[in-house]
Design goal:
The complex is a heterotrimer of chains A (about 80), B (about 475) and C (about 400).
Chain A: H1 3-14, H2 36-50, H3 56-59, H4 65-75
Chain B: H1 6-21, H2 28-41, H3 47-67, H4 82-116, H5 142-157, H6 167-174, H7 177-180, H8 188-191, H9 203-236, H10 243-274, H11 292-296, H12 301-318, H13 323-342, H14 348-369, H15 371-376, H16 379-398, H17 402-414, H18 424-440, H19 444-449, H20 453-470
Chain C: H1 33-57, H2 76-86, E1 92-96, H3 98-101, H4 111-119, E2 125-129, H5 135-145, E3 153-158, H6 198-209, H7 211-223, H8 229-233, H9 251-254, H10 298-312, E4 316-321, H11 334-350, E5 355-356, H12 374-386, H13 388-395
The chains are: A mainly alpha (about 80), B mainly alpha (about 475), C alpha/beta (about 400).
Chain lengths: ~80, ~475, ~400
């Protein structure tokens, strides 16, 4: 599986929605059932799935899925 | 000088035409800065020193940080890391604010502790160490422009913006007369580009700016001042008031502070618009919020986004390994911070207010996790519940002391249900405000916006006439003391 | 692709959606250029016409001895209206402070009343004194609200009470409160006692130049107990525990479109009042005054300017130097007093201004340092009428 596919799987689990399809340019917006807690859950799940650790700074600067993906790939 | 005074009108009448005359020359930006300094310096010329300090300090640290690599080289000494300079800047920015706002409170309480443990030492009152006979007074707007400068440093650190090369532009960013006293708190990324070139001369800037200014003036002078008379009477003497009086005064206070603060923000944005600048929206029908989180997305938006981006998010992410507790702790710290920022005079009441909102937000989050709550509970119940909670928290914001606040809370439950002595007109104003806000967020908004042009002009005339009849002596803006 | 395809990465709560024009938020009153012009025209029309129309509609009854009621002393718009009414040909307007108005006496016990009695025509002399006024305030009043006085015969009172101390002269250095601050010069000359910030000063100048704003004050003073409408609704009646009578009253119902008459009986004034006694019977004693020399006196300079303004409007002005209660001046203080009165007399003579300085009345005719009792006014009127300069001035056109 490509990183993108693995990421998509994480999203689907965290948000309990099998129909989520990611695109790199997707940005922050209201997701049904989202609150800031899901956001941290998402990050935790991503870190667990890929076995990586994000630093504080980059977490605060992700602008879209593409940024997230790039950061993941740079750590693999 | 405050916006609703004659000296300001005269100031504007001089500065505005000159600004547009100088538009095509290189002088427009220095002139704008000079005007902002004159505006701010009128309150107290000594405060300008503080503005200069903040400007030069952050500009310099910006230079240093931008010369360092984004990712520190391995094994680099501390002064080669951007994070070091960020923290240095943060402390250097915050200490004047902390000194002017909290030093006296801190000294008094520490002296009390010394008294209890019989240490024969007392800290002096901070006014003693002020040089050149400068008074120990809270510089107006210090909380606002300090936070604005801090946001520049932090955004620079996060790589969200490039450092500002032009000192003149940066100085204008730190001290821009429409928003220097009471916000909205702007971000560097939003404001600095606006100082790159002067706005074109557009009629719309004038018509929109004047509209906003008139609305703000009306809210502040006609509505907020009126409600204040009633609220002050009750909150100055809560022990003598019955339960309905206390409840109504609290509700009235919620509206008073809304009209006051949103009115000022409207005036600030209107004035900025006259010059062709855009300042962010600060209030968006806050009493229609369906939860505390929603409330903070509608109330003092520039401030809540600031604490969200710079305090809550970093803390929450830092503590993500304890998801529920980490988030809750981050919320508590953030709103404790908010309470501390709002401190004006008495300390503890604002802390309690901040913490109440923190817990309220945590509770809202919990509730909204349940699908039942999200889908089955009607909106009006959510709104009413949120308003009730926010009003309850306002008791602590407004009361003179913690004891008073607790007395009010107690009396709301046990005091007799006597005549509240509230004017019918006040109730009418509050009901009309509610109706307006509700209509505004429904399809009736289209109708409101599309009213025939004669009606709008007539409304404006009515506002001015009402304003003339409402002058009940000037009351300082509530938020000016922050 | 279902709706889910649009689900996105949650980051921070969304940026407030901002259109490039920066939204108005919940403020939907957004006027365009045409509307602003309509607004401007409407405001100008209202500002110009409403007070004028109001003057015609509001009942204002005055009898021969009418004087501005005490409660309306700071209703300058109304006072200006009274000036206009009083300024009829054949009628003589008497302008001054509480001495002319009659602090201790009823409306039919004042100097203008007795002068009218002497002249044989009731109401010939109109009482345009205002209680609580002083030369600096009278200057502002005449300048801004007295434009109806043109080509009129006017008696302008000069009262040396206002030069009896630096505090009364408003030239003392200690800041203090005083009445009618909105009438006095706000910027030039600088009044040391006057303590107000720039906003208040400019506000005072604006209010007295924009008729509409003075008219708004009039409505507030006359119908709303000197309060703004918001304050009026929440006013309490001063009792303990307080009552709030206006909470549910309709403000519009207050506006009866007729100036309220002063109360029929005033317990504080008139021969039957306990205050209406000679000064030595109410415990007052001769005093030593700190006379302010004429060249330093702000009040005297204001008087001079008022005189010039009245004359420049074609008015035929006679200055009446009301006799001060000399008996209440300590013996060794009297020379200073005479210097002042002598100086005033000399200046008036030098500038060829018609003036009379009746002699001091006997001690029993005074209520305090400057105010006569009813019988004092009657005697004063007789004395004035007997003076040939006065008769000559009355006859001249």
């Amino acid at each position: 599986m490509t990183p993108m596919e693995r990421l998509e799987k994480v999203f689907r689990v965290v948000f309990d929605d099998d129909e989520i399809a990611l695109r790199p340019e997707m940005t922050a917006n209201d997701v049904d059932g989202w609150d800031s807690l899901s956001h941290t859950n998402l990050i935790l799940s991503v870190e667990k799935e890929f076995g990586i650790k994000f630093n504080q700074r980059e977490l605060l600067t992700f602008k879209n899925v593409g940024d997230l993906l790039r950061s993941i790939e740079s750590k693999l | 000088m405050l916006f609703h005074t004659y000296p300001f009108i005269i100031f504007l009448a001089i500065v505005l035409p000159l600004f547009y005359l100088l538009r095509k020359t290189k002088l427009w930006l220095p002139f704008l800065l000079a005007s902002s300094y004159v505006f701010y310096g009128m309150l107290n010329p000594w405060f300008l020193l503080l503005v200069l300090y903040i400007t030069l300090l952050n500009y310099a640290i910006g230079i240093v940080m931008s010369r360092l690599p984004f990712d520190p080289e391995p094994g680099a000494p501390f002064y080669r890391k951007q994070i070091f300079w960020l923290w240095l800047g943060v402390f250097a920015d915050i200490w004047p604010l902390a000194f002017f706002k909290y030093a006296r409170f801190f000294n008094e309480n520490l002296n009390a502790v010394f008294g209890w443990v019989h240490i024969p030492f007392r800290l002096p009152d901070p006014s003693v160490i002020m040089p050149f006979g400068i008074p120990y007074l809270l510089p107006a707007g210090i909380s606002f422009f300090t936070f604005q400068a801090l946001s520049y440093l932090i955004d620079l650190y996060l790589g969200k913006i490039e450092r500002e090369r032009n000192l003149l532009r940066f100085a204008n960013f730190v001290c821009f007369f429409p928003n220097v006293l009471m916000g909205p708190i702007e971000r560097a990324g939003h404001m600095l580009p606006q100082f790159e070139r002067p706005a074109a001369f557009r009629l719309k800037n004038f018509t929109d700016g004047l509209s906003l200014f008139l609305i703000g003036l009306f809210k502040k002078l006609a509505l907020a001042s009126y409600l204040q008379i009633f609220v002050d009477r009750v909150y100055d003497n809560p022990g003598d008031c019955g339960a309905p009086e206390l409840i109504l005064a609290t509700i009235a206070f919620g509206w008073q502070i809304y009209f006051d603060f949103s009115g000022y923000s409207d005036m600030a944005r209107g004035v900025a618009r006259l010059f062709g600048f855009n300042l962010v929206l600060n209030f968006n029908n806050p009493y229609l919020a369906t939860g505390i989180g929603d409330f903070w997305r509608r109330w003092h938006m520039s401030f809540s986004r600031w604490i969200l981006d710079y305090i809550f998010m970093p803390l929450q992410l830092m503590w993500r390994n304890w998801p529920s507790w980490g988030t809750a702790a981050a919320l508590v710290v953030t709103f404790l911070f908010s309470g501390v920022w709002h401190v004006a005079g008495v300390f503890w009441t604002y802390i309690v207010w901040g913490l109440l909102h923190g817990f309220g937000l945590a509770a809202t989050n919990q509730l909204e996790r349940s699908k039942y709550y999200r889908k089955n509970v009607p909106t009006w119940i959510k709104r009413a519940g949120t308003f009730a909670f926010v009003s309850f928290a306002w008791i602590f914001f407004r009361a003179h002391t913690i004891d008073d606040a607790l007395l009010i809370v107690k009396r709301i439950f046990i005091a007799p249900w006597s005549n509240p002595h509230i004017a019918g007109l006040i109730i009418a104003i509050i009901i009309l405000a509610w109706i307006y806000q509700i209509l505004h967020e429904t399809r009736w908004r289209e109708t409101l916006a599309r009213t025939s042009w004669a009606w709008s002009a007539a409304l404006a005339v009515l506002l001015v006439v009402i304003l003339c009849f409402s002058s009940s002596g000037s009351g300082a803006f509530i938020y000016l003391q922050f | 692709m279902s709706q889910a395809a649009t689900k996105t990465l949650p980051q921070t709560p969304p940026e407030p959606v901002e259109d490039p024009e920066s939204p108005f938020g919940p403020n939907e009153m957004r006027l365009g250029a045409k509307q602003w012009i309509a607004f401007a025209i409407a405001i100008v029309l209202i500002f110009l016409c409403l007070p004028a129309i109001w003057q015609k509609l509001e009942r204002f009854d005055t009898g021969p001895d009418y004087r501005i009621p005490y409660s309306l002393s700071n209703d300058y718009w109304q006072i200006g209206r009274w000036f206009k009414k009083a300024a009829e040909p054949g009628r003589i307007v008497v302008i001054g402070d509480s001495v002319i108005w009659g602090e201790y006496v009823n409306p039919d016990g004042t100097l203008p009343h007795f002068l009218s009695v002497e002249s044989g025509a009731p109401g010939r002399f109109a009482n345009c004194g205002v209680n609580g006024f002083f030369p600096l305030a009278i200057e502002g009043l005449i300048d801004n609200y007295g434009t109806a006085l043109r080509n009129q015969k006017v008696i302008l009172e000069a009262d040396v009470l206002w030069m009896t101390s630096p505090q009364r002269d408003l030239s003392a250095s200690k800041k203090d409160t005083f009445n009618h601050t909105r009438l006095v010069p706000q910027f030039r000359p600088r009044i040391p006692v006057y303590d107000a910030d720039m906003n208040e000063r400019i506000g005072a100048v604006v209010e007295r130049n924009i008729r509409f704003l003075s008219w708004v004050s009039h409505i507030q003073i006359t119908y709303f107990d000197q309060k703004s409408i918001p304050q009026w609704t929440l006013a309490d009646d001063g009792q303990s525990p307080p009552n709030y009578p206006n909470l549910w009253r309709n403000p519009a119902s207050q506006i009866t479109m007729s100036i309220p008459d002063p109360p029929a009986t005033d317990p504080d004034r008139g021969p039957k009042s306990p205050r209406h006694v000679p000064w030595f019977e109410s415990g007052k004693e001769p005093l030593h005054y700190d006379w302010v020399p004429l060249d330093k006196s702000l009040q005297w300079q204001a008087f001079q300017r008022t005189l010039a303004t009245l004359r420049s409007r074609g008015n035929d002005v006679m200055v009446l130097l009301v006799p001060f209660n000399e008996h209440m001046i300590a013996e060794d203080n009297r020379p200073a007093f005479r210097t002042i009165t002598g100086g005033i007399d000399a200046w008036l003579a030098e500038n060829k201004i018609p003036h009379i300085a009746p002699a001091t009345l006997p001690p029993t005719f005074y209520a305090d340092a400057s105010h006569p009792l009813t019988e004092g006014y009657a005697l004063l009127a007789k004395n004035i009428y007997a003076m040939p300069e006065f008769q000559q001035w009355l006859k001249q056109r």
